[in-house]
TrEMBL record:
GO terms for molecular function: ATP binding; ATP hydrolysis activity; transmembrane transporter activity. It comes from the Bacteria. Keywords: Antibiotic resistance, ATP-binding, Cell membrane, Membrane, Nucleotide-binding, Transmembrane, Transmembrane helix, Transport. Belongs to the ABC transporter superfamily. Macrolide exporter (TC 3.A.1.122) family. Pfam families: ABC_tran. One of its GO terms (biological process) is response to antibiotic. PANTHER family: ABC TRANSPORTER ABCH.1, IMPORT ATP-BINDING PROTEIN. GO terms for cellular component: membrane protein complex; plasma membrane. Signal peptide: none annotated. This is ABC transporter ATP-binding protein.
Amino acid sequence: MPNPEIPALVRLRGATRRHATAAGPFCALDQVDLDVQAGECVAVVGPSGSGKTTLAHLLTGIEQPTQGEVVVDGQPLHAMSQDALAAWRGRRVGIVFQFFQLLPTLTIAENVMLPMDFRATFPRRERRPRALALLERLRIADQADKLPAALSGGQQQRAAIARALANDPALIVADEPTGNLDSATALEVMGLLAALAREGKTVIVVTHERELGRFFTRTVTLRDGRVRADTGAPRARALAEAQA
Ligand SMILES: Nc1ncnc2c1ncn2[C@@H]1O[C@H](COP(=O)(O)OP(=O)(O)OP(=O)(O)O)[C@@H](O)[C@H]1O
């Protein structure tokens, strides 16, 4: 049952992202309303160019809307300065990319410690034990002292998920996290992300891969920058009305 006591972790209202192009203004995301609760595991799907990455960028503060509101974990991302956004992003959201984006000259454990080092979120002596615990959680603690190039793609993506968890964010946003993995490894990695949602993280995944459907509690379909379908919409609407 919806619990009106719990405010949505993610709340978009009329979120719009326009770009100036040679052919005139182009709307990558158009008047999107969306509420996502803690613990949801949401797939964002839609054809190429429908606005999925733009939505992921708005949720992580990589881009700001040109109009409308994006509130995540109580923070109005649409109204924050670039510095404030960068600081917030480093602490409160974990981002997972298609191509892992681990730093090649740092070991796996050092990569996972990096967000803690940047934001000084944990005392220095706690950072390596915390990184090792996260790698253990992702079942790759034995790879901690290797460089990323020595790991398989699936292992690198698990390390990237451990890095995303480093500062214990409420929200994990992943843009095609399995797009560079074989299908067995993709299922494994998606299973790990879904398990994080069951433990209370909010997980939002941009994906093309239909075979991952069973991992999600909700699917939001974009087309031409608009939400065309949302399997969680009735519940989200009831919650929003209860909160109004
Ligand atoms: N900086 C920009 N300037 C102009 N147009 C842009 C810009 N960024 C994105 N777009 C356009 O906005 C639309 C949505 O892009 P977006 O990357 O969000 O789509 P997507 O659904 O993630 O696509 P894909 O599945 O191919 O990655 C596309 O038509 C894209 O070309």
